[in-house]
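Hey, I was hoping to borrow your eyes for a little while. I've been staring at a protein lately and its backbone has me curious. You're getting the sequence in one-letter code plus the fold written as tokens. Would you mind checking whether the tokens look sensible for this chain? Here's the protein in full, and shout if anything looks odd to you:
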Amino acid sequence: MAERFEKQEKEKKISYFKERKSFFNGEGSNINSNNSNNEGKMIVVTPEQAALAKKVCFKCQGMGHIARDCGNKVTVSKKEHRMLLAYLDQEEKEKESTCLLNTEEEFDFEEFEGQEKITPEPEHHHIDHKLSSIFLVFATIFAMANAQGLKLDYYKTSCPEAEEIVERITKQYVSHVPNFAAGLIRMNFHDCAVRGCDASVLINPTSSNNKTEKTAIPNTTLRGFEIIDAIKSALEKKCPGVVSCADILALASRDAITTINGPWWEVPTGRRDGKVSLESEANALIPSPFSDVTTLKQNFAALGLSAKDLVVLSGAHTIGVGHCFIIRSRLYNFTGKGDTDPTLSPHYADWLKTRCLPIASDSTSFVFMDRITPKVFDEKYYTMVTQNRGLFVSDATLMTDQETKSYIETQVKTKGSTFADDFAVSMTKMINIGVLTGSQGEIRKTCGAVNQ
């Protein structure tokens, strides 16, 4: 039985690499691949067709048909092959973590034998506090900019299919790797926290500027850039020089969350792309996972966001992962004496140590931030926080402020009665921070580089 299962998994992995090229071209699997006129249009389907649309082909991993009806004979390039390998490996890691977390209730914490203690250097943002204060002043100015140039259906005439293309490609990626939803939301917030929502986080380092926001400490673990690039490529073919990368990021973040059955919110468009991207600003302005609640409230206030927005947007930690290197000092050397953060649940800390070993060179290991329902957008993150199982210091500290604590306890008590609506409201505020409109900025030809 084990050999047959291993053979099936191997065959599945090989067939996965035969995924249609259209996945990377923003077209996805098509029930009627011969009808090219259907692209981008709303199609009325029967209940039977709707049910079939949810089927996943074992042969090609496409949706909308089953293996015996699969006509996919398209090969992929070496680059696409490597991308598929990365997707599959990440998904396998996520499945492994899911299997492990399902055993939590059966884990005998009392029999756990402590890990060997070492004293690695604590991982913190080494930012000059005076410099940080100066940047916060500038951040406040950017946050005060209004969004009068934004409106719904901004591209209705100039690129009518723009939002449909963004939604379609986003869903293709997130359906394959659900954790992309967390990546895009985080990327969107990190972008808006620095110079406003201008897609400056997407700019790649160059010989003339080798330290962009992308290379900043908080952004080294961002993921989802390939989704934005794929969307931009498709839009440039359809409507060259029309849709901004800033709008793409704002729309894709929303569409990624709705793909995993999270809340929906309006995204007015008309943003333009920034031309400046500096590592130093990102290091200074993006809220740190090591910050206390007072600092976090100051960070959010500088962006025009309230304490409620802070605790609501922190709820996005209900999905996605946290990397072990960020919490290693909290587990093994919290005060520099080889100790564990005393505010962390001892049982949870013991479990984390089985996943996050005291290996300073390990920068890839991760754990889910919400171990209860890690791939469901719900209020269970708040349950984790009330149980002293918030992964980061910035999570745990929310219980030390009366306003944020009250919100958390209310969501736990009412099973998230208002969380989805609150999240939509806070996201609507966030995506309007310091936007560029009109003749400001530019419409980049590619999201990773300013126009020349």
